[in-house]
Amino acid sequence: MKKLKQEDLFKNLPSEIMIDILSRVPVQTILSCKCVCKWLHDLVETHEFAQFHLSKSILGIALTIGPNYVKHKTLEVTNVNLPDLHLSTIMVLNFTYHNTSIQGSVDGLLLLSTYKHRSSELYLCNPITREAINLHSRTRPFGHGVFSYGFGVSKISGQYKAVRIWVDKKTCESECKVYTIGTGSWRSIGPVRFRCERTRAVFVNGNLHWYGHDLKDDNPLVSCFDLETEVFTTFSSPPLPYKKSSVGVVLAAAAEDSLCLCDCTAIDGTVIIWLMKEKSWTKEFVITDIGSILPEPLRVSKDGVILMSSSPKSLMYYSSKKNKTSRIISNSQGCFFVSSLSYIPSFLSLECFRTENSFSFGKNLFETFSHKSLVMCTAAETGKGEFRLRKEEEVWFWMSRLRRR
């Protein structure tokens, strides 16, 4: 009986099994699989694989890094292994324009704002598939206006939407615009009644949330924008010692689709984490001796693990069980983590939004990209349908090992 080649053995497996196998291996290895042969490339590019992989994808972090707070030179996406406080790099991208910031992250898609030629633009991108969409929101700063952004997906229709809010701090004029990905245009939904204190919103359970102050009486509040109905509602913030100050008050996402608020306004450096439970705030964690300037929570897990970015050069991990704070990463090169956001790697393709003009990364957004020990090529890039891999045996090792489980 003729011995089957290893490649033929996997090729003859049902696609459902192959999708299950590939979804369990590291992202770098999946990207390598695309370069082995055409049928693996086509399988990874299916919508079925993207959805199945997304359901199993683990928490990561997207970071913008630069030599100071103005120049953001690099975007780095990582996986987080909390037990051993380790970050593993998935991809590094160098921005063409150095003042680019992350304004939102949902299902592996990043909303990026970039400032160039005295105007700002918004891009939606997937760093894993190396695709991007220009949302055509070029705006020039005028008056005393401040822009704030949000990005999320509606709970019922599943539509991805970007939100841009402009508020003039002196005149209190304001405007909110919404861009539904796939429509190619912005829609105005009228003015807002609050002043945003952060440039980006927090996405939780189909809603975008901003911490801010009422434009009329300047009282602190949390504004909630329902991405399905496109209606704003507000609710009060927890009891804060300094209600008029916005410094040291940060919203974040918590486990089980709940909202949390981090209060760092205490003079003694104590950090209080409030969780929204059943439409009311509950004081969940009190962290003392954190040894950091204005920590910003990225994610709060249900077992009391808090992942935080710490100004200016580190990421931190707090365990409520051990009542201990540990530093995950410390940059010794003199660079700053300008912005950071929780991120889940995915293979969702922007080409599914057929009315949008998606493009592969080029010098209009990124100069260069790199993977750890990985060389990528696709049929579109070679023009010959050729797929080559530096370490092909690594792919078959992973696939055969998972198949035995």
What does this structure look like?
The chain has about 400 residues and is mostly beta strands. It is built from seven helices and 27 strands. The chain has helices at about 5-10, 15-20, 25-35, 40-45, 45-55, 380, 390-405; strands at about 60-65, 75-80, 85-95, 100-105, 110-115, 120-125, 130-135, 145-155, 160-170, 175-180, 185-190, 195, 200-205, 205-215, 220-225, 230-235, 250-255, 260-265, 270-275, 280-285, 295-300, 305-310, 315-320, 325-330, 335-345, 360, 365-370. A five-stranded antiparallel sheet has the order 25-1-2-3-27, with no helix packed on it. The protein has a five-stranded antiparallel sheet with strand order 4-5-6-7-26, with no helix packed on it. Strands 12, 13, 14, 15 and 16 form a five-stranded antiparallel sheet that branches. Strand 10 (about 175-180) and strand 11 form a beta hairpin. Helix 3 crosses helix 7 (about 390-405).
Secondary structure layout plus pairing:
Layout: H1 6-11, H2 15-22, H3 27-33, H4 38-44, H5 47-56, E1 60-66, E2 74-81, E3 86-95, E4 100-106, E5 109-116, E6 119-126, E7 131-134, E8 145-153, E9 160-168, E10 174-180, E11 186-188, E12 194-196, E13 202-204, E14 207-214, E15 220-226, E16 231-236, E17 249-254, E18 258-263, E19 271-277, E20 280-287, E21 293-300, E22 305-311, E23 314-319, E24 324-330, E25 336-343, E26 359-360, E27 366-370, H6 379-382, H7 392-403
Antiparallel strand pairs: 1-2, 1-25, 2-3, 3-27, 4-5, 5-6, 6-7, 7-26, 8-9, 9-10, 10-11, 12-14, 13-14, 14-15, 15-16, 17-18, 18-19, 19-20, 21-22, 22-23, 23-24
Helix pairs in contact: 3-7
